[in-house]
Amino acid sequence: MELWLNPACSKCRVAVEELDAAGIAYTVRRYLDDPPDEATLREVVARLGLEPWDIARPKESKEEGVEVPKDEAHRDDWYAALAAHPRIIQRPIITAADGTTVVGRDEAALAKVIDAETT
Predict the structure, then answer these.
(1) Sheet containing 2-5: order of strands
(2) Are 95 and 84 within one domain?
(3) Domain at 3, CATH number
């Protein structure tokens, strides 16, 4: 399991606590220090079943000056923006060994990835 996190984020700390409580081994990627490239972002977004703009944090996007239309014609621009400005990426993103991937911001998402890892 891989966990993309920002240690200063309360949702990330909750995810760590839940994974630890479930006894799940995971690798931490501090994505602000080790930003994903566009290819990795494409893989993760595909596993999430989302569009790249769906994993962008609105406030941080605005602060970083990322004002890209949310449409198919600008999909590549979103991947470039996410790679160039990792601060705008939603967190935590968790990928189980079977490929199940979630943005672990709520109990249901955390339960989904924990179930995928333990069954």
Answers:
(1) 27-30, 2-5, 93-95, 101-103
(2) no
(3) 3.40.30.10
pLDDT tens digits for the chain (119 residues)? 999 999 999 999 999 999 999 999 999 999 999 999 999 999 999 999 999 999 999 999 999 999 999 999 999 999 999 999 999 999 999 999 999 999 999 999 999 999 999 88
Give the C-alpha separation, 95 to 36, whole Å.
Answer: 14
- Which structural domain, as residue segments, surrounds residue 81? 36-88
Q: Is 9 a catalytic residue?
A: yes
**Same domain for 17 and 55?**
no
Residue with tokens 């972002």: 41
What is residue 27's DSSP assignment?
Answer: E
Q: Per the residue annotation, which of 4, 7, 9, 82 is the catalytic one?
A: 9
